[in-house]
Design goal:
The longest helix is centred in the last third of the chain and has 17 residues, at 534-550. By secondary structure, the protein is an all-alpha fold. Helix 19 (310-322) packs across helix 20 (329-339). It is built from 38 helices and no strands.
């Protein structure tokens, strides 16, 4: 009985996802998935709507599977994709920001004159903005600007702000003009960032005309914030006198600049040494200025941060704290955590301002600050944060101490991190094993093996013991530096203690043993993984084959593959082995191996051949692969597919 479209979509998507879990990397398209779909017998059911049903929602998070299935469906004779199937795959690619693939498909859509729903353009433009490809986003917007209202005010305002923030003010003005023309509502974020950057180089009259245009269209903007941004932009461009004149123009439009705007102009005149002008501004401030609305600025800063307009959030935050204006602790936390990713120095200013107000960062803020200081290699600042917080008795629980240990370790400050552990104990807190592991990892990373061994002893002496991660850290390090006997001792020790190795344990030890040419010992370790869990052994097999082949021991690799049962051996391992043989010119060995696979596991041959065929285009030595494919063709019990036909023509 023919399944319904919904049932077919569920069945196909489950088959694809299940089969992709067996490939490496997982959830990626491979030739073996085509074999799975052929066995499923779904080729005759294919239609654009079914392709769309399979991709959306089932394959949306898995862009490789979505795109692979999309292209696989197009191979069916007479099949043509329509807007519905293009929309589903573009949605998946936009979510995962696969920009090259998006551009290829949009080019196809344009060539075929396919009309897409505005929601597709909305998601693509938003994806480009998030991926910091604002000019690409503009090019797409420019092609479909007639759909501005359907694309929506949120996306249009995001694009307007992003273009202006990135310095593409000319493009931003074109977006602004189109929004006005199409009647798309402007908000404080979009227009605010745009006019902030635009006014610096524009004539004052032009800036005022844009402001009048926005007022006329009753857009959703906060007047006080827009005024401050224009004043700040003019002063940043050393146009202080014009900024002062701007106050009068604003008064005529019934805008009331707040104290923050007046302070910006006051400080700009003060820097120029214009004492008389400073007094004029202060006099006008006392007469006409109003107190800044703390909540309005709070919401605007949060909008800037959520849109990743961090330079603008930083600048506005600095205006507030430099003038000692009211700012809530949640805003300071957001500024510290986010701005530290682009400007650690500015983030430290926000942090110190917070501390001066007897407020403290949340643990999330501390984590973001610590991670970003490590990323920018600001270890001195990281230590300063620790000492400031420690002097304020901030560290009162295990979680906050552990966070600090983690960041000091990441920064390579092993001695200081160990000191924090001792301070924890002094304050009656027992460090957990994750803190010890973090310190152990830092010791190994900094090649401090003696301290690492002493820490190992301390962990046992203090009663904390060790866990799988501890073993993995040390086994990986000892294997990496060639101290393979120590790595083997640790492996045996963990087995005796009842700690089950995982894939990381096995791959680290196998790599070390192969590098030391101890292939028989490596095989014994692999057998341990097989005894522990067949799926685990299957997972690490490909990596093991790579390690052996890198050392040039092809005979041992072949012996290993031939010794495995079908539940452990899989086509990918044979493909890896055969590719290494092709690169090394070991044609006779590869042919013998293919003959063995053909006699012992003939069902693997179609998948192996498909993978080898797919590698032809990128291979620097195609001749050995062609000979392998010819051998498989002679040995394969299944009929030739399209790939075989192409090969037959070549041969």
């Amino acid at each position: 009985m023919k399944p319904s479209p919904s049932e077919a979509a569920i069945r196909i998507s489950r088959a694809i996802i299940s089969a992709s879990n067996q490939s490496r990397p997982t959830r990626s398209w491979s030739p073996s998935l085509e074999q799975t779909l052929h066995r499923l017998g779904c080729h005759d059911l294919l239609s654009p709507s079914l392709v769309a049903r399979v991709i959306d929602p089932f394959l949306l998070p898995h862009h490789s599977l979505a795109l692979g299935f999309f292209y696989w469906a197009s191979q069916k004779p007479g099949f043509t994709h329509t807007s519905i199937s293009y929309q589903s795959v573009l949605k998946s690619l936009s979510i995962s920001r696969q920009f090259n693939a998006v551009e290829r498909l949009l080019k196809d859509v344009k060539t075929q004159k396919i009309l897409l729903h505005s929601s597709v353009y909305r998601s693509v433009i938003a994806s480009y903005i998030i991926g910091k490809r604002t000019q690409n986003a503009f090019l797409i917007f420019n092609e479909v600007s007639a759909l501005s209202r359907e694309i929506g005010p949120d996306t249009c305002n995001s694009l307007l702000a992003a273009l202006a923030s990135d310095g593409c003010v000319v493009y931003a003005q074109r977006v602004f003009d189109e929004m006005i023309k199409q009647g798309v509502t402007l908000n404080s974020l979009g227009f605010g960032v745009f006019i902030w950057r635009f006014c610096r180089n524009a004539e004052l009259g032009t800036t005022l005309s844009l402001l009048d245009e926005v007022i006329k269209h009753a857009s959703k903007i906060n007047g006080s914030i827009i005024v401050l941004l224009i004043i700040h932009g003019l002063c940043q461009a050393s146009r202080v006198s014009e900024a002062f004149e701007f106050f009068e123009e604003l008064r005529r439009r019934e805008y009331k600049p707040d104290f923050m705007a007046y302070r910006i102009v006051t400080e700009a005149f003060r820097l120029k040494g214009s004492a008389d002008e400073v007094q004029k501004v202060l006099k006008k401030k006392r007469k006409l200025g109003v107190a800044p609305r703390e909540n309005d600025y709070r919401e605007f800063i949060f909008d800037l941060i959520s849109e990743r307009r961090l330079p603008e959030a930083k600048e506005l935050g600095e205006v507030i704290i430099n003038g000692n204006f009211p700012i809530r602790n949640d805003v300071l936390n957001a500024l510290v955590g986010s701005v530290s990713s682009i400007d650690p120095g500015s983030a430290m200013l926000f942090f110190k301002f917070m501390i001066s107000k007897e407020s403290f960062p949340t643990l999330l803020t501390l984590s973001n600050l610590g991670r970003n200081l490590c990323k920018h290699e600001k270890t001195d600042e990281l230590l300063e944060v620790f000492h400031i917080l420690s002097s304020k008795n901030y560290f009162a629980d295990l979680e906050s101490y552990s966070a600090m240990v983690s960041f000091l370790c990441k920064a390579g400050r092993v001695r200081e991190a160990y000191g924090v552990l001792q301070e924890m104990k002094k304050n009656g807190l027992d460090p957990d094993i994750s803190s010890y592991n973090c310190l152990m990892e830092a010791c190994c990373r900094e090649d401090l093996l003696r301290p690492a061994k002493r820490l190992w002893d301390e962990m046992f002496a203090s009663g904390y013991g060790v866990n799988l991660k501890t073993y993995n850290i040390l086994i990986e390090k000892f294997s990496d530096i060639g101290q393979i006997q120590d790595a083997q001792w640790l492996f045996q020790h963990m087995l005796e203690k009842g700690v089950n190795p995982d894939a990381t344990t096995y791959t680290s030890l196998l790599e070390g043993l192969c590098q030391e040419q101890q292939f028989e010992s490596a095989f014994e370790v692999f057998k341990k993984s097989l005894e522990q869990d067949a799926m685990l052994a299957r997972t690490i097999l490909n990596t093991f084959i790579v390690y052996i082949c890198k050392e040039g021991n092809f005979q041992f690799a072949s012996k290993l593959l031939c010794s495995l049962t079908n539940d452990v051996g899989h086509p990918d391992s044979h493909v890896i082995f055969l590719k290494y043989l092709a690169d090394a010119g070991e044609i006779s060995t590869s042919i013998e191996h293919i003959k063995w696979v053909g006699s012992s596991s003939p069902s693997m041959l179609p998948t192996i051949s498909a993978a080898l065929f797919a590698s032809l285009a990128s291979s620097s030595k195609p001749e050995p692969i062609l000979k392998m494919l010819q051998t498989i063709r002679d040995k394969s019990p299944v009929p030739c597919n399209d790939s075989w036909k192409e090969l037959s023509v070549e041969c």
